[in-house]
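Data card: per-record layout.
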Amino acid sequence: MMESIKSLFSPKTIPFLISQGVVPKLLPVGTFVLGIFLALVWAYGIAPTVFTSAEPVHLGDSWKREWVKQVAWQLDANGNTPEAQANAKTQLASLGDAKEEVAKVLQDTPQGDPLGQRLQNLVPLAEDNPAQMGKVQGNFLQGNFMPVLCVLVPLLLLGGAVVVNTIIPITLLFQGRSKERSTVVKGVDADRRAAMEAAKKQAASAPPPPPSAIERGAPTGQYMSTYIMGDDLYDDSFSVETASGEFLGETGSGISKTIGVGDPKKVTATEVWVFDKNDIKTVTKVLMSEHAFADEGIRAELAPKGEAVAVKQGSVVMLETQTLTVQARVVDLAYGSGSLPPNSFFERLTVEISAWPKKAGQATAGAPADAFGETGPVR
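The structure for this 379-residue chain is written out next.
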């Protein structure tokens, strides 16, 4: 709990939330809160509710008794004539429960008080008025239980929707077709799945890589990413999480550079990357074809993206951040052929990506001992 509270005040929190795209998701919540604030300002500052046209029936008990006393004094001052009695009867009827109010005032009036006799003159004139009482006697919707319903019903509706949605994502039934471009070109998804399944079988039968200088144990996450020629939107990403569901970061693979002209695109370099939530940065290595790695111009162009690596069957590339170690192993590689130079673009490339959280004491700086494959800086 304390760690969660401390993370709210960490200078890394805001950049991390922005990098994860949280800001657009919080926009509806911010709009809702702003709406409540503006509604309160309007209701209590700009246009407050003013209660008007009140009648005697709306008075509190103490003020109703004062009303009865004033009617009694007025009747006595007018000589208790039939006309004065009719006027007093009308004024008492406006109370709604005149009999009860007159009886209460009489009960509270001391013996010998001149007001007592004047109140006695009101007893035969006091009559209840159901029509007036209806203005203050609420029905079921106006009763004391209504505020409870205002809280209980929304809770049941929202709670029920949340519970049901965890079992059946009902929102998908009303979700329109996405306007975003797919990450896989239509028509090649089946070929891509087939290539990935073949790569998995090949990876399972291939000899394991040399043992690591640091024992990491089983990876927290292991993913397979396959590019096939024609998948011009190739861009895979995977969440790295612990067994308990704690988010550690993301990793993935995508197109880095193409060569030549025409469709489909000829991919001469891909890139493998890892994002560490505790590091707020992305580490990238560029996997180049033999032709691209030998071309100084291409290497210079891609140098800002990350370290250049010449791709070979079975080669392993390591990426390290502050708290994550990611291994990318090439399990399937095939070059395309045509008018372009030999081994200049991929027809098929499958990378197995494994991620481990770093143990205490493991260094971040420097290349790991178990990374191999021909790598090097731009000369």
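Known properties of this structure: The first helix runs from residue 2 to 8. The chain has three domains: 17-50, 56-133, 189-205+216-359.

See the next section for split statistics.
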